[in-house]
Amino acid sequence: MTDVPVSFLLNWHATSYHAPIFLAQAKGYFKEEGVSVAILEPNDPSDCAGLVGRGTMDMGVKAMVHTIAAKANGHGVTSVGCILDEPFTGLLYLEGGVDGKGNGITNDFRSLKGKRIGYVGYFGAVQVRELAEKYGMDPEKDFELIRVGMDVVGAILDGRIDAGVGIGAVNGIELEAWCTANGRPETDVKLIRIDELAELGCCCFCSILVLANDDFRAKNPEKVAAVMRAIKRGADDVFAEPKKAWGDVCKFKKTFRTELFAKIYERCFPFMSRDLRNVKRDWTKVSAYCHRIGVCDANFTPNYTNEFIQWEQLPEPADPAANQVLMAKKQDEVRVKGGVLTAAQPVAVAA
């Protein structure tokens, strides 16, 4: 079973919310579960779901909207779990612009008229165009869309774009670090949340999922199960002893040994999934959203399974909307007071 490594492609360059995956490698959990795993990083984040779906990679991670799109486009890919649940995602910008003299952007989407908007991959552009139509704007004339791949923050800072699609707990932290280094308040970093603009009631469209190629999954269910058990052990370590787990990750992955990655870990921690399950409510909501923006048709069957989540699954929040409000408050608290690595009394995770 361990003769041929499972190829496992990340959705982005290695970053802090991948901690359970790297812990599974660092602490030998994959090996103990009877599987060898080769963790790979992409040059283009748009590649992952398609590469897994075509069978070029056995497994990987990617956001829910991209996973649905890959399946709708005929790729054989299924989500077998979730590592980052509903991270706040939207259009990042610096209040006042890079020079601090003003760029006219506010939390009103219509303030983006005449601006340059950066996006990571194809479906980011689709989302922005759909929002433009919702707010009475012409997506072909009222702003310029610019593909920036994994360099959303760099594109904002060097003036290529005025705002860009990103995750608040990752790309937003990179912008905050730049603000601190340049004598600007961290609060100059703003996020126009796509879930709020699109009236989704959650940010689950950008939940980061664990994917498996359908043929690989059918032929090697024991390997998929082993990978998921190992990642769950890594997640258990993260939640049991966050500081120790982060130290273990940093010993294994030297690129994480920076204050920036530590802050991203703290801010991503509340969004990390404890049980790794796919949430039916989220899949139903995002599948409907994807139909609305033309990513899939009305008959699309959500491509996920929890058959490899072979442990107790936690109850869903009784009030998802209220939970999102609580999570936003906790993000502010972690930014001001520190989180699981630095706070005197770490901020609790939302229910």
TrEMBL record:
Keywords in alphabetical order: Iron, Metal-binding, Pyridoxal phosphate, Thiamine biosynthesis, Transferase
GO molecular function: metal ion binding; transferase activity
GO BP terms in the entry: thiamine biosynthetic process; thiamine diphosphate biosynthetic process
Pathway participation: Cofactor biosynthesis; thiamine diphosphate biosynthesis
Top-level taxon of the source organism: Eukaryota
Catalytic activity: N(6)-(pyridoxal phosphate)-L-lysyl-[4-amino-5-hydroxymethyl-2-methylpyrimidine phosphate synthase] + L-histidyl-[4-amino-5-hydroxymethyl-2-methylpyrimidine phosphate synthase] + 2 Fe(3+) + 4 H2O = L-lysyl-[4-amino-5-hydroxymethyl-2-methylpyrimidine phosphate synthase] + (2S)-2-amino-5-hydroxy-4-oxopentanoyl-[4-amino-5-hydroxymethyl-2-methylpyrimidine phosphate synthase] + 4-amino-2-methyl-5-(phosphooxymethyl)pyrimidine + 3-oxopropanoate + 2 Fe(2+) + 2 H(+)
Keyword Zinc recorded: no
Sequence ranges assigned to domain SsuA/THI5-like in this UniProt record: 16-245
Cofactor list: Fe cation
InterPro entries registered for this protein in UniProt: NMT1/THI5 (IPR027939), SsuA/THI5 (IPR015168)
Keyword Iron: yes
Function: Responsible for the formation of the pyrimidine heterocycle in the thiamine biosynthesis pathway. Catalyzes the formation of hydroxymethylpyrimidine phosphate (HMP-P) from histidine and pyridoxal phosphate (PLP). The protein uses PLP and the active site histidine to form HMP-P, generating an inactive enzyme. The enzyme can only undergo a single turnover, which suggests it is a suicide enzyme.
Quaternary state and interactors: Homodimer.
PANTHER family: 4-AMINO-5-HYDROXYMETHYL-2-METHYLPYRIMIDINE PHOSPHATE SYNTHASE THI11-RELATED
Entry's family note: Belongs to the NMT1/THI5 family.
Protein name: 4-amino-5-hydroxymethyl-2-methylpyrimidine phosphate synthase
Organism whose genome encodes this protein: Rhodotorula toruloides
